[in-house]
Amino acid sequence: MHLVHLRKVLRALTSRDYESLKILSAKNKTLICLLGPILIGCVLLYFFDPHANDFYPKCTVKKLTGLDCPGCGSTRAVYLFLHGEFSEGFSRNPLLFIGFPVIVLLFFRPSLARKSWVGWTAAIVLVTYSVLRNIPVEPFIYLAP
Amino acid sequence: MQVYVGRNGEKFGPYSIDQVNEFIKQGKYSFEDLGWHEGMEEWKPLRTIAGVIDENEIPISGSSSPNKTSPTEQVPSHLVWGILATLCCCLPLGIVSIVHASKVEGLLAAGDIEKAKENSKKAAMWAWISFGISIIGGIIWGILGAFGAFAEGFEGAY
User: Quick one: A58 and A22 in the same domain?
Assistant: First the structure.
């Protein structure tokens, strides 16, 4: 369903038929606005190693406090994944690989995103994860980036 | 606006846009059927005509939810943004957003639509504040980093 939409949008853009873009739902507009940056990010990450290049945006919390946040390691994880180093990538941020499908699911199923328990679970998981990955003792070090 | 519908070379109508939408919902016409209204140079598929409903908005038969028109439908929780803000932007503000998002359903169930909307708004607001701070911070660190301001000590902040 969404691929059909994407094709429609591309066709509208290439034929300069901007009028037909107006019928897109807000959700699909958001999706298109997100896909662009994600694609650019992936291309950048493929060619420039975040382990060696300094120009990538850095995590503000990490900079200010030195603590690892729940998202820390994601940039490197994506880089490693794009280069086929799956187990290395996974260990940079294990939660990312569970969290990403969940976010995609919630995006396409807003009724699920409105459920209270989903929200509370997300909050608890994220807070617990942030605490655990900053404990410098086994087995928690495996959660650190 | 009066819309004509073309199907298999035959012309139907004119209909109002609401009628067309109704026909599409009933399955009488499809999005691929051609449509034309005054001002258009040529016939185009109905889905490209402004005002025709979005394909996604049509309830899929069989799984149509009874609460389609209930208030829950109108109050988004913005939970996705809260989670993204927490994950990507590394900010406790993201958690604030998630907590607000989680309250929406309960408040709606209790019938307090005003409060639910307020929480929904706050969830979105905190998520965006979190994004904003992180983007600005990220750019500043990025520029400093590009100029080699940190020779060391910031390893692994990506």
Answer: no
The β-bridge partners of B44 are B35
**Which positions 44-73 of A are in contact with B (Cβ < 8 Å)?**
50, 54-63, 69-73
B99-132 pLDDT tens trace:
888 888 888 788 778 888 888 888 888 888 888 8
Quickly state the pLDDT bin for B68 (edges 50, 70, 90).
Answer: very low
The alpha carbon dihedral of A43, A77, A33, B141 has a sign of negative
pLDDT confidence of residue B72: 45
Map out the domains of chain B with their CATH numbers.
2-57 (3.30.1490), 69-146 (no CATH)
Residue B137: list chain A partners with CB under 8 A. 57-58, 60, 63
Is residue A41 assigned to a domain? no
Confidence check: pLDDT of B80 > 50? yes
Strands B2-7 and B10-16: antiparallel
Total number of domains constituting chain A: 2
Torsion angles phi and psi, residue B3, rounded to 5: -110, 135
Interchain contact, B86 vs A71, CB within 8 Å: yes
Q: Which of A17, A23, A123 sits opposite B52 (nearest CB)?
A: A23
Chain B residue numbers with beta carbons less than 8 Å from the beta carbon of A136 are: none
